[in-house]
Amino acid sequence: MEQKKKSALTRQKxxxxxxxxxxxxxxAAARVDAIAERAGxxxxxIYAHFESKEGVYSAVLERVYSRLSEYQDTVASxxxxxxxxxxxxxxxxxxxxxxNPSFVRLMLWENLNGxxxxxxxxxxxxxxxxALLQSGIEKGLVRADLDVEQTALSLNLFCFSxxxxxxxxxxLLGKDLGARKELAKxxxxxxxMFLGYILPEK
Amino acid sequence: MEQKKKSALTRQKxxxxxxxxxxxxxxAAARVDAIAERAGxxxxxIYAHFESKEGVYSAVLERVYSRLSEYQDTVASxxxxxxxxxxxxxxxxxxxxxxNPSFVRLMLWENLNGxxxxxxxxxxxxxxxxALLQSGIEKGLVRADLDVEQTALSLNLFCFSxxxxxxxxxxLLGKDLGARKELAKxxxxxxxMFLGYILPEK
DNA sequence: TCAAAAAGCAACTAATCAGTTACTTTTGTA
DNA sequence: TACAAAAGTAACTGATTAGTTGCTTTTTGA
Lengths: 202, 202
Hints:
- By secondary structure, chain A is mostly helical.
- Chain A has helices spanning 3-29, 32-39, 43-49, 53-77, 83-99, 101-112, 120-138, 148-164, 166-173, 180-198.
- Chain A is elongated and about 65 Å long.
- Chain B binds a DNA duplex through residues 1-3, 6-7, 10, 31-33, 41-48, 52-53.
């Protein structure tokens, strides 16, 4: 194989292995040797491609955060048209979080570590939600007295929290809240709650 | 000083130092030497009082979880009487979380580590909320078609999430969401959302 | 085809850390 | 007061870990 491609492949394999390990055990407990082993790559290659353990970590974060952009673009493309729009936003976000479990975990680790490396991707998402709500207000489809920032924050947090406390609450309730059926129930509940709040009084 | 008291004091100092350190950096990054230094105690004392690093950790968790019981007892003592009850539950929970930042962080660390040591305290809290909502339904003060479990879960998660993602969202929004004023706004928002959802249609 | 450059590797190093040991000081009690 | 038990201490140990070094293999281009 060509040298450039080989090198790029190694880099890719390192990033994938690092994402799995950093997201599952966090930065402090992650072992560089474990990343190398999982990637099927010599440890030195990690230092050849990235400066340090922190270097790999921030590269992983960048990669993972960037995936949110796709969802953000979807949200930005929506026109606020009422209940249906909210349903789509929530179910799209749930879908994103379901298919990106390492995003959820890395956000949480980052948060506990004082958000050392927050990227712009999550900021854009909030802005997109705010703009959407605002356009809803202008069209008279959303209550005019709404605090747009708080509401956008809530939408984000309420969806996210269905994932972020999964383990503890699953143990407490004695059922797997990560199961598709439970998550669907949760998405529906969050959507209904939201609609009840943001739609103008009839 | 008396031997028993001296020993108990040392144990206390260790637990306090360990709580600060475990909650701020998590189990993996916490250093036993750092706990000893912060407690102003010889490292060996940690091993004299607790078996191992894990031993101290689980003792800390037990201590911290037990503080939730007080709030749980408050909730259990309430009678559902409508909007005012919801307001009190939310503001009491916010008050608890504000004055117990290490509870929030330890719950999050635990969650990321697969909830190794979940205790009964959080379970009792959920049960209390469910019972309260149920009694509201029976009195006709709460919508009868409510999914009590989902709603209790939401109440819990929505309050908790105001704290759990503070760092990342503070950075994104460029303001300190941990400030009292911001938290008060958030509590009010959550309360209003909740009321809109659970109260029966007029 | 062949040398230079890039990629890959195994073995090493210095630092860090959980846990231990062997010892001294303090305290309670007979 | 004397002595045994408990509390406290400092220095050590073995294992682990991030990061390095010096070497071999593979690939590229003239």
